[in-house]
């Protein structure tokens, strides 16, 4: 540029023109002489807006929640016969979620499958405060002794090491009782709460090369199964950690009654 008669003369100035292709893939701009125009590719993310985005109510209890409050929710669903008592276990899982959805549908509430404040208000209005007996049904009593409290609800193989008995219990009612034996001191049968992980009708142990018919596995390689050795020798022998049954006729029936996921409670009375 140069000064001429007090006026500023600007040479070689070209106004930039910017073209923006909305929804397209390119942005181009003119440049000053001597410079090449540049084209930049722009990647767009397609989206659609159809009305307002939904706003979901805050969950008080949902899938994965646990504790005493969840048990109270489940007890109320049991009152309405939307949930079987065996699933009243303090854990908000698949069965509880399904029961909640059924309740919501019956009340014209969107079946979200979790408990929000409005659903909770409707549920409390439709039920009464659960009693202690409803929350914690009394454990079955056999021969004057209470079984483990965990055997009071649902389906359970309730195994007492003290009395050496296995009791098949359904919702607090003893359906079957079998004599059992356990592992030796070095291969003790584990105690605690388990579930049946898998079943094998004609199982053979690869570790000990021994037959384990009607096996119901609950903890690693430990299972409830028929033992011909137990039938022949009684309590003079021991297992390698499994729960041996000596009554073949009974365990055949039991095997067909028990399902994967049923509780196995091994304890001492």
TrEMBL record:
Pathway: Cell wall biogenesis; peptidoglycan biosynthesis. This is L,D-transpeptidase family protein. Residues 155-267 form the L,D-TPase catalytic domain. It comes from Kribbella koreensis. Keywords: Cell shape, Cell wall biogenesis/degradation, Peptidoglycan synthesis, Signal, Transferase. PROSITE patterns: LD_TPASE. It comes from the Bacteria. The active site is at 225 (proton donor/acceptor), 242 (nucleophile). The keyword Transferase applies. Residues 1-31 form the signal peptide. InterPro entries: LD-transpeptidase, LD_TPept_cat_dom, Peptidoglycan-bd-like, PGBD-like_sf, PGBDSf, Transpep_catalytic_dom.
